[in-house]
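Example record for the data management plan.
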Amino acid sequence: MFLNVSGDQYSQAAAQAVQADISDEFQPFLRPNQYSYFTSSTRAVAKAEELATGRKSDLGVVYKVYDYVTKNVTYDYDKAANVQSGYVPNVDDTLSTGKGICFDYAALMTAMLRSQRIPCELIVGYAGEAYHAWIAAHCTDTGKVVNIEFDGDKWTLMDPTFAASGDRADPNVIGDGENYNPVYYY
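Corresponding structural encoding:
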């Protein structure tokens, strides 16, 4: 529990550790949350259903959603320069404007994949020195797919934000994935 001490300053007043026994490790990554919120009437869910139609595997759905997002959402440099602490993505806004920052890309893909019953983690941490958001999906046919990019033959380490820019990110940042340092999993 936090108490407001002044303006936007808070002090922790109480804390409690909770042990949760989860019988299915994927359940938390199948549901909407504050950062990738969706309902059955969300436009992003309808788009995901459209993209999933005819796909015979989870991996096929992941590829179609990934391909759609990276080709139809562009990086919003103005938003990136002005984003405030506490920003929460809106997946339908990202879908309709076709613009977003890394958190928007990750939230949209997370909502779309989860709505298709594909467990997806929205991960926030660092890519090199940059505070960043990306995803990891778990496909029943292949296992975990991390930092998704598909070159037509294989999945490699990358993420939708960098892939959507139309070129490859700095290999010194992406590398072999060692420069990705997750802090939070949503």
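Summary line stored alongside the record: The CA atoms of residues 78 and 102 lie 13 Å apart.
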